Amino acid sequence: MAAYNRGVDRLLQLRAGALTELSMAITFDPTFAVAHAALALLGQEFCAPVDIRARLASARLHSRRSTDRERSHVDAVVRHVGGDRTAIVSHLGRYPDDALLLSVAVPTIAFAGVTEVPADAWRIVESCAPVYGDDWFFSGLLGFVRQEQGRFDEAMALSCASLEAMPSAGHSAHARAHVHYETGDHAAGLAWIDRWITDAGAHTDNLAHYAWHAALHELADGDLAAVGRRYDAQLSPVHVRGCRSLVDTGSLIWRWGITPGATAVPAIAAAIDVPRFQLLRPPTVFMALHAAVALCADDDSTGLYSLALWAGNHEHPCYRSVIAPLAEALRLLVDGCPSACADVLQRIASEVWRVGGSDAQREVVEETLLTALLRADRFDEAGRLIDTRLDRRPCRRDEWFRELAQETG
Question: Which residue among 128, 152, 181 closes a domain?
Answer without folding.
Answer: 128
